Amino acid sequence: MKIIERGLALVGLLSLCALFIYALQDAPTDENFEKKLINDYNVYALQMPEALNFAGEPMPLDNPDIYERMDRELLVNTYWQSNGLLMFKRAKKYFPIIEPILAEYGVPDDFKYLAVIESGLTNAVSPAGARGVWQIMPATGRENGLEVNKNVDERYNLEKATVVACKYLLEAKEQLGSWTLAAGSYNAGKAGISRRLKEQEVSSYYDLLLGEETGRYLFRIIALKEILSNPTHYGFNFRDKDLYSNVPTFRVEVDTAVRDFSQFAQKFNINYKILKLHNPWLREPHLNNGSRKLYQIEIPEKGYYDVVR
Predict the structure, then answer these.
(1) Torsion of CA 134, 140, 146, 148, to 10 degrees
(2) What is the pLDDT of residue 130?
């Protein structure tokens, strides 16, 4: 019996030794850590699509310069995974608002990706003074009928701002002759693009020598178009329920001043924060409205927000 017990003890000891040796082998030594790093994390060169276009106008990928610049933007935006996923999520929420307006004005659907690179589909603020999803400058907004002041700034109204963007792009297309150049002008201005075309004696965006930002501009738009149109091809995995959706709203017409939007919001069982989320163009906690202008304020339908009193 003692011989058996000693044998079992010896087997147990050998097992413990084996586990200890295995643990040491699996410990993060320099050698096996490097091996795991190489095996567990891989970055792949991307295969360039055979053909790419913007608004039906082909990109000359047979040009080595164009190929390399396009490759750069595909790589940068594919491997910036967190930002990419956010773009998919926000696109589900905001593209359904943008798309029908583009179609109504006869602007190609591809221009929704211009809004993506302008602002990341957020109400961004630029150092130069541009605001909103479409990054509209104050003068451009006012010239196209938007109210822009400290109290009300309709550049933050996505529907109205999209209309302004459409008007600008239609004029740019008429003046410059192509949708590609119209897109470039959204960054550099119609006069800026016209001047460079004349100075360099070329007629295509792809033949222009431009500064860093404008030179990358169209390539970034096309890269986002390609990636957002082919998520699994570029390694993005998500379910439809992972994406953002718009909260249904109804509109309340107001043609008087509103002294306190916190009190106004309570009438609809929401708070001031929720009111602002759905009406970011209301810039102050009150509405002046000395002219008795008719405003439409978006109110979320019941049941979507729990208001804490």
Answers:
(1) 90
(2) 96
Q: Quick one: which of 204, 171, 232, 268 has its CA closest to 60? A: 204
Express each pLDDT in 217-250 by its tens digit: 999 999 999 999 999 999 999 999 999 999 999 9
CB hemisphere CA count around 106 (13 angstroms): 5
Picking from 301, 189, 182, the residue whose alpha carbon sits closest to that of residue 252 is 301
Alpha-carbon gap, residue 226 to 77, rounded angstroms: 10
CATH class of the domain whose range is 57-242: mainly alpha
Q: Are strands 53-54 and 57-58 parallel, antiparallel or unpaired?
A: antiparallel
pLDDT above 60: residue 308: no
Residue carrying structure tokens 């998520």: 231
DSSP letters for 220-244: HHHHHHHHHH-TGGGT----GGGS-
- pTM listed for this prediction: 0.86
Residue 118 Cα distances to 106, 121, 122, angstroms: 21, 8, 9
Q: Which two tokens stand for residue 194?
A: 């016209």
Q: Quote the tokens at residue 156.
A: 């933050």
